[in-house]
């Protein structure tokens, strides 16, 4: 079918969903949204969703430019509705500066006792969400030295939450976009980042799922939409399988389909991981062809499976009810505390039996391995691929946020070194380099086990709380022998945390896309298929990077505002472990 004709068929299928091509139809497409897509509005307008998708198709068919080449301005007045103020107005996110082992220990203990939502942490700071009226209780558990060593990350949490939902103004910009026929070059020939309207905002499932179907139907030669199974609430967990060897049948025992898996959305509130997974897939699919030889080689040699929303129930819940929800949504033994942390539920190294678990906590591991439906689905699907479809997983990237880090196995313990540690570190450093060279944002590299709940006392080698088991990272690395498995924590480093503004969607996607391209070049070179004169070019070049800096976009890391002398503190007798909620 000719591309334009096919686009029209897709367009018709969007306007009239009953004509839709036979691809998985997630049940949640029936959930619809409203101008700001925010919770608790009653004026559902599904037509608006389809209008936006339709507009995107029209732009592509007639090569029209988007109304603006940049995401909508994020100038916001203090206009969060009352129900946002009711839910989040009493909360603050505080960054505590840690200066001693005692401070670290008491802060970790207090957070556990009060069941506080610990967002992220490093060996110098810990971010904690706490209700204002809980502050006296928290302070009562902390040493006096911590009473004045914290700063709020966001001055208005309710507003920051509200600002992450799409705006009505951005919707109206989309509405106008296709009626302004300014002549331009074809979207297929643009060399810059993709300008798909999809990436101007974070998108709910009701837009994500039809968009995935659209991509698959527009590029049938190298994209296919599959469902790896159904979530606890019965939603499909969709995946885009990208590559040109869809019909390839491996020959012989030593031949296999080499596959990279990239997943996002395991933790519901980490929206940037959903958009970034989608962005990488979109960039590869639309750039396949002679103008992008690296993309073409990658897709000709490997299958890439993108799972943008591993936790669709939790993700949907962040759009309808609670923006800061983290787990899935299945019931637990405690009726008023649903949800299991998918990334603590995988079989390998599962550690939910250690007694520190509580169904009401944000990282509840369930009552046994694979208790989270979505973890079991991914596990079964992946095992079936290797056992029955002759697939070899060569790389796995599990996208999360925030803190800008590339983490390699193991997560469940620091006591066991991964067998190919040197290779893991080399590629991790390469990935971090690609991230940095694209937009100038620094990504750290370390073992995932360093992301434990709190700190260890070097003098006694006693861990205060253990490493985190049951991760998808360890499952792919250990059980599926995926040699290059990483968990990547995307932007930012705490200015917005999980509430990253939409203006970061495209640049974060672009730096992750460059990292995947680098990984592809490294894998191809390593297989002897392609040689590079300069190994430095595998991960990018210095000249290619720093786009954000050139454009005047600079990181506003809260860490930067601390005094230099504070950064030099290096307590000799302890090592503060990172308490992270990945
Ligand atoms: Zn996470």
From TrEMBL:
Peptidase M14 domain residues? 201-523
Described purpose of this protein according to its UniProt entry: Inactive carboxypeptidase that may play a role in cell wall organization and biogenesis.
Any Pfam family from its record, for instance, is Peptidase_M14
Signal peptide extent: 1-20
- Which source organism does the UniProt entry give? Exophiala mesophila
Q: Which GO terms describe its molecular function?
A: metallocarboxypeptidase activity; zinc ion binding
BP GO terms, sorted: cell wall organization; proteolysis
| Compartments reported by the entry | Secreted; Vacuole
The cofactor required is:
Zn(2+)
Q: Where is this region: Disordered?
A: 543-582
Query: What is the name listed in the Swiss-Prot or TrEMBL entry for this protein?
Result: Inactive metallocarboxypeptidase ECM14
> What Gene Ontology cellular component terms go with this record?
extracellular region; vacuole
Family membership, please give it: Belongs to the peptidase M14 family.
| Primary localization | secreted
Keywords attached to this Swiss-Prot or TrEMBL record, sorted alphabetically, are:
Cell wall biogenesis/degradation, Disulfide bond, Glycoprotein, Metal-binding, Secreted, Signal, Vacuole, Zinc
